[in-house]
Amino acid sequence: MAKDSPLKAVGWARSLPVSSGVKVAREWTRTHVAALGWTQTAPELVDSILLAVSELVTNAHVHARSAAQLILTWDEECLHVTVHDASPHLPEPRDPGDSAPGGRGLLLVDALADSWEAYRCPRGKSVTACFQAPTSPAPEAMSSG
């Protein structure tokens, strides 16, 4: 981004009760990522984003046993995918072993995202995964939804 251009950011947020499941989160995310034009220009990146959303929302529902707030923020360089839940306990990547049925969520997020971080908030924690823009630029004008 040029130094003289003002930062333009677009964001979307959605609350996902435990009963909503991750399919709703993926479909909602797919709609907003499509607004960036990435569905056509970077379908593999979209798949990575959707898988990360699935893992992060599942972690909030299963491990924190709370609703998840899913926030997508596009700052013209990176799509920040944030999931907030009510648990103050920060997630820790672990080695689940070959036979464990789960425990690979953060390993997947680490492999898919350009970066990720977890941090405590006043009412729980947030986990944010960042996905850098594909080589082709996103449309300049986008509508919010």
Would you give an account of this structure?
There is one protein chain. The protein is an alpha+beta fold. Helix content is 32%, strand content 26%. The protein has a 5-stranded antiparallel beta sheet, covered by helices on one side. Helix 1 (21-35) runs antiparallel to helix 3 (43-62) and helix 3 (43-62) runs antiparallel to helix 4 (105-112). The longest helix has 20 residues, at 43-62. It is globular and about 35 Å long.
Radius of gyration: 15 Å
Alpha-carbon distance between the two ends: 25 Å
Number of helices: 4
Q: What is the H/E string? A: EHHHEEHEE
Side by side, the strands of the main sheet go 1-2-3-5-4
Shape: globular
Low-pLDDT segments, ≥5 res? 141-145
Number of strands: 5
**Could you state the oligomeric state of the chains shown?**
single chain
% residues in beta strands: 25-35%
Structural class: alpha+beta
Helicity range: 25-40%
Averaged pLDDT, please? 85
